[in-house]
């Protein structure tokens, strides 16, 4: 019963992983992006690039539409240049949405300011999973930058461009600007969109690792690292400090590059699309290039930096502080509270006197209204025929009047919030002629229908900075649009809720607010104990009753230790909504601060708030962020199971026996050993500075356990499936596989089948030739197919021998066949019974047990190198051989070893399996400790295992029985030599 319960855990883990993958694909959050439509047919004009003969498969294109194509063909470019770099598998045509919107905007303003979009064609290469082409792409991108500079320089004006890189294209942009000073002179800044900037998504080859290492070394030497994410506007300190770097992430819908990888320590501004004003939503990896809300904002940011350069030409401003100001205002939240400015000479809420904007009031054209209610909402659906100034009194030293939450809808004035000393009188109302703007406290609030702004003020702190002030003013200008404003004065202690992240096994629901007052518009929820990125809380907000209106909920999630990762979630006209709260990056050890969740409710509605740990989103985030770690766990468990198979024979036993793979996998011992000792070893290795950091320390314990169980479940399922394929589909698989890897001629297929059975060494030589002339990954896939054919044949032989031996035993019982002498006869000499190895007695089942884990290792090695196979296939018309080939060396090593193992009668009855088992344990732990993130190292780990097994099978001495040795000493020398010759022939 305990064994059966243990086997349910790996199967359950596999089901959880499949469920998480399904949730990631389409059930996390709906896509609310609007399509970007075009008015004319797009035209992509290819531009000649000097030095392009080195890269014939790449190209540079200029975007245009309609009649403007003639200007491009004549090489007339007068706008500010923007170079778009596509990502992994991306096309140069992905620039269409950005370029088309920019072109329409240029036509609308009579071509006064406009952008010239260029796009790079990188042959849609999968540079995200194959790093062999990253260097060529960087070299060509450098040629493109120089060519665009020549296009503008030929007309006598300098051209400094912005590079917009999507996905891996953002990393290419970072690589090209750090190469030499001549490139830096042509590039003002880079914008990365959904790009893995400082860390790659997965390291499937060492080319990716060296590419990122080179960029890191260059930028570390030439670019300042901003402390705590604060941008440094000083230029001239280091060569790359004068360049604006903006990183943008897609949020929870981007399942390819998760949000924790999109930020950079070298970025001036980091923003997530769900926090960018007027975007307010998460976008998936490809949607970022056509989502209309994001495309409009990105072009607005680029246009905001365009300045005239004379003679009808335009370019980008070269003042970094202006660029940074535009980036913060358009792409980030421009909020500056009372403590955001550290200047001691400032007052007025942290804004110095020389920066404070003064608002002039005209009381004869305005209605001044002071309402003594603490919380109220006013709606004017037909608009307002006169400007209204709502006065909110500052009441110091009273906790109930400490915080003020104000929100306005459709206010057409930017400086709608101000403060003053209302000591003047006009008519029957108190008023002030001048007021100080508090625009630095205002924030745009997400809405898809209205212009909505809000502010949260600490009135006691405001009064302390401005002792003479008596009121905060909300100015609503006259308008024919529907207008609404709400005021909520409250004690923050009454609106603050604290909750703690439940344990990993606790998924119960908890109600934290039963029935909020209809006048309550704001609550702050502090979530303590959220440390890991997979931890997720589902916050359910339900509108119990509403006074004739439809509820609108806006939730802001602020993660204090992750600057730029604030997230807005808004839901309109819904009675119930769910918001998921999670940390995008792990909590620093020295910063145990809570996540702040600001909930903005619709006045007039009563809400109920519940929370619970979300299993579906937690599993989805584990799959999204940690799926790349699964191969290392699978290989480690296969090696430990193989070690258990080889360790089932006693040291002094003359006959070596191989255990069953399925039995070894289902034993809890290897799993417990891997779980218990890997973490201890990783922590122990941190004591030695010379030893590299173990990647396992960055994986949460719960995730490690789940990965181990999922890997074990996959292996058990795969083992059962493979045995089923071998047992029931051997002959059918023979024909199918051979027709796939051989010529489609029946005679040739049967001939090839007999060659595989009779001459495995010749097949191995053919596979080596495939690796050298095509790519290593293709040869490994073929080797896996051939291996399956050999295992199927071994199983067929086992069945034949099993039937034959069973029939002989039945005949012996029924007819007395096989007796050596008749009754009454005594043998003249007792026959010596020598115990021979099992594989010498025709036990093909043990042969299968020995080769099955090796077959799994070959399959895993082939799967790890599938990206290189796809790359080779996509570029076959350019080159027959993949260059460079990260799988070539591991493939050649494994194929040479397979040639020997297939040729020998393995497993041999030799000594030294104990040392081999110890090596397998060491490689298993190394795989978990150092190959989880650096997946490409598994290639060499598998190669080392095959090399060790092959060398052991060749040079290890044979096992000998003591009794057999004594009998051999008594035998005549000629007979002993004959026995040795026979044994050698059998071994060979």
Automatic annotation (TrEMBL):
Residues 975-988 have a biased composition (Basic and acidic residues). It is found in: Endoplasmic reticulum membrane. Residues 77-305 form the GPI inositol-deacylase PGAP1-like alpha/beta domain. Its main location: endoplasmic reticulum. Residues 702-950 form the GPI inositol-deacylase transmembrane domain. InterPro entries: AB_hydrolase_fold, PGAP1-ab_dom-like, PGAP1/BST1, PGAP1_TMD. Residues 960-988 are annotated as: Disordered. SUPFAM superfamilies: alpha/beta-Hydrolases. Keywords: Endoplasmic reticulum, Hydrolase, Membrane, Protein transport, Transmembrane, Transmembrane helix, Transport. It is a multi-pass membrane protein. Coiled coil: none annotated. Its EC number is 3.1.-.-. It is an enzyme of class 3 (hydrolase). GO terms for biological process: endoplasmic reticulum to Golgi vesicle-mediated transport; GPI anchor metabolic process; protein transport. GO terms for cellular component: endoplasmic reticulum membrane. Residues 963-974 have a biased composition (Acidic residues). The chain crosses the membrane at residues 623-642, 671-691, 703-729, 736-753, 759-790, 845-867, 887-905, 912-930, 936-955. GO terms for molecular function: phosphatidylinositol deacylase activity. Involved in inositol deacylation of GPI-anchored proteins which plays important roles in the quality control and ER-associated degradation of GPI-anchored proteins. Belongs to the GPI inositol-deacylase family. This is GPI inositol-deacylase. It comes from Anopheles dirus. The lineage of its organism: Eukaryota, Metazoa, Ecdysozoa, Arthropoda, Hexapoda.
């Amino acid at each position: 019963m305990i064994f059966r319960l243990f086997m349910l855990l790996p199967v359950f883990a596999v089901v959880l992983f499949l469920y998480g993958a399904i949730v990631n694909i389409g059930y996390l959050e709906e896509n609310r992006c609007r399509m970007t439509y075009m008015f004319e047919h797009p035209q992509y004009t290819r531009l000649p690039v000097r030095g392009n003969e080195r890269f014939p498969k790449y190209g540079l294109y200029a975007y245009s539409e309609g009649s403007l194509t003639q200007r491009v063909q004549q090489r007339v470019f007068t706008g500010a240049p923007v170079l778009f770099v596509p990502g992994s598998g991306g096309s140069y045509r992905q620039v269409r949405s950005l370029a088309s919107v920019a072109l329409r905007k240029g036509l609308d303003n009579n071509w006064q300011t406009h952008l010239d979009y260029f796009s790079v064609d990188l042959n849609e290469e999968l540079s995200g999973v194959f790093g062999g082409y990253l260097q060529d792409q960087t070299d060509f991108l450098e040629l493109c930058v120089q060519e665009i500079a020549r296009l503008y320089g030929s007309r006598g004006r300098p051209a400094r461009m912005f590079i917009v890189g999507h996905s891996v294209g953002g990393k290419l942009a970072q690589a090209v600007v750090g190469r030499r000073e001549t490139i830096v002179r042509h590039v003002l800044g880079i914008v990365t969109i959904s790009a893995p900037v400082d860390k790659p998504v997965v390291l499937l080859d060492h080319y990716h690792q060296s590419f990122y290492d080179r960029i890191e070394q260059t930028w570390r030497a030439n670019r300042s690292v901003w402390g705590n994410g604060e941008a440094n506007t000083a230029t001239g300190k280091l060569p790359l400090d004068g360049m604006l770097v903006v990183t943008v992430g897609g949020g929870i819908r981007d399942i390819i590059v998760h949000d924790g990888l999109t930020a950079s320590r070298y970025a001036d501004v980091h923003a997530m699309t769900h926090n960018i004003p007027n975007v307010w939503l998460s976008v998936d990896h490809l949607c970022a290039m056509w989502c209309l809300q994001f495309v409009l904002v990105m072009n607005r940011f680029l246009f905001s930096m365009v300045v005239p350069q004379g003679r009808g030409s335009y370019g980008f401003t070269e003042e970094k502080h202006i660029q940074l100001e535009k980036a913060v205002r358009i792409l980030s939240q421009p909020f500056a509270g009372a403590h955001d400015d550290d200047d001691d000479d400032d007052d007025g809420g942290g804004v110095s006197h020389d920066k404070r904007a003064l608002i002039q009031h005209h009381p004869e054209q305005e209605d001044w209204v002071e309402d003594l209610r603490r919380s109220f909402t006013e709606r004017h659906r037909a608009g307002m025929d006169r400007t209204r100034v709502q006065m909110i009194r500052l009441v110091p030293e009273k906790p109930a009047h400490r915080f003020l939450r104000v929100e306005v809808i459709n206010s057409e004035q930017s400086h709608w919030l101000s403060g003053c000393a209302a000591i003047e009188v006009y008519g029957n109302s108190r008023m002030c002629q001048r007021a100080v703007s508090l625009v630095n406290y205002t924030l745009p609030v997400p809405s898809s229908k209205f212009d909505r702004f809000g502010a949260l003020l600490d009135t006691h702190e405001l009064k302390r900075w401005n002792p003479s002030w008596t009121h905060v003013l909300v100015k609503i200008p006259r308008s024919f649009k529907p207008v609404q404003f709400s005021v909520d004065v409250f004690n923050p202690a009454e609106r603050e809720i604290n909750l703690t992240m439940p344990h990993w096994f606790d998924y119960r629901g908890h109600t934290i607010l039963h029935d909020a007052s209809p006048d309550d518009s704001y609550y702050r929820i502090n979530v303590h104990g959220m440390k890991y990125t997979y931890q997720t809380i589902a916050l359910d907000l339900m509108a119990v009753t509403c006074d004739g209106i439809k509820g609108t909920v806006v939730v802001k999630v602020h993660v204090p230790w992750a600057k730029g990762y604030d997230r807005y979630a808004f839901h309109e006209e819904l009675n119930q909504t769910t918001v998921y709260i999670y940390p995008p990056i792990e909590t620093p050890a020295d910063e145990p601060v809570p996540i702040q969740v600001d909930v903005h409710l619709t006045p007039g509605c009563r809400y109920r708030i519940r929370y619970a740990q979300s299993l579906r989103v937690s599993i989805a985030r584990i799959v999204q962020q940690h799926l790349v770690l699964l191969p290392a766990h699978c290989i480690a468990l296969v090696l430990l199971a193989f070690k258990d198979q080889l360790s089932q024979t006693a040291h002094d036993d003359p006959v070596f026996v191989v255990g069953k793979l399925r039995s070894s996998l289902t034993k809890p011992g290897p799993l417990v050993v891997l779980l218990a000792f890997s973490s201890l070893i990783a922590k122990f290795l941190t004591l030695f500075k010379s030893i590299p950091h173990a990647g396992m320390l960055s994986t949460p314990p719960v995730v490690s356990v789940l990965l181990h169980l999922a890997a074990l479940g996959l292996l058990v399922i795969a083992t059962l499936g493979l045995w089923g394929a071998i047992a029931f589909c051997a002959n059918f698989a023979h024909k199918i596989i051979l027709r796939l890897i051989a010529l489609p001629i029946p005679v040739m297929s049967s001939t090839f089948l007999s060659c595989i059975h009779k001459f495995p060494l010749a097949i191995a030589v053919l596979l080596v030739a495939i690796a050298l002339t095509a790519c290593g990954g293709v040869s490994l896939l073929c080797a896996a197919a051939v291996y399956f054919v050999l295992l199927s044949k071994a199983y067929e032989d086992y069945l034949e021998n099993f039937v034959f031996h069973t029939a002989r035993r039945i005949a012996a019982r029924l007819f007395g066949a096989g007796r050596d002498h008749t009754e009454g006869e005594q043998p003249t000499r007792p026959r010596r019974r020598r115990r021979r190895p099992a594989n010498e007695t025709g036990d093909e089942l043990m042969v299968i047990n020995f080769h099955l884990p090796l077959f799994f290792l070959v399959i895993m090695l082939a799967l790890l190198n599938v990206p290189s196979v796809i790359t080779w296939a996509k570029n076959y018309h350019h080159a027959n051989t993949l260059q460079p080939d990260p799988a070539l060396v591991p493939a050649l090593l494994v194929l040479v070893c397979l040639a020997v193992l297939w040729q020998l009668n393995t497993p041999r009855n030799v000594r030294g399996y104990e040392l081999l088992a110890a090596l397998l344990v060491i490689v298993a732990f190394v795989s978990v400790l150092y190959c989880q993130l650096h997946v490409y190292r598994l290639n060499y780990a598998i190669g080392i295992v095959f090399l060790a097994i092959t060398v052991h099978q060749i040079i290890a001495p044979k096992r000998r029985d003591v009794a057999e040795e004594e009998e051999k000493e008594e035998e005549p020398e000629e007979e002993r030599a004959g026995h040795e010759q026979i044994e050698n022939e059998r071994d060979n």
